[in-house]
Amino acid sequence: MINNPIVNDFLVQIVAPEDLKNIKAIIQALIDGIETDEAIHEKTDIKLNTVRKLLYKLHDASIATYKRNKDPETQWFTYTWKFDKEEYVKEVTDFYTERLKEREDLLDNLENNLYFVCCMEPEHFKGDYTESSEYEFYCPVCDYELEPYDAKKEKSLLKRRITIDKKNFKKFEDSIQE
Ligand SMILES: [Zn+2]
To answer: Which Pfam family, just one, is annotated for this protein (predicted)?
Structure first.
């Protein structure tokens, strides 16, 4: 449920890439029923400060919740954490669905429209017929001519990403049932 490329892509929106391994270990600890920052720290060997920081990131992303309790003897506050599986599945699913739609729309556009790029430096300009005609088919950056864009590579890359994503999401869905 957490070892999936789609989950990785989703989680690096919440934490920096260097925290990916740690946040996955923390989620796993929560799934295993470990409830406090101290216990997670002991179980995972991740620095206590980092555990706390990442727990709050999960909380901000609504995939973990906490309860604050006052110890009647010491008067100290303790926090017990819980993983919100339902919300997690929803967030990952939304992330996947949105990205899939973006890629399918992009593919659709490439298949149904002719694009033009700068003949000297494709980075300068890329636009559909209407946009390109506004510049009379000359690059707005360097004034060299625009030429028809060969979308073959970009289309096959998009198709591959869409296929892989669908396969990985299927795996994710299967893993939820376990
Ligand atoms: Zn140019």
So the answer is: TFIIE_alpha
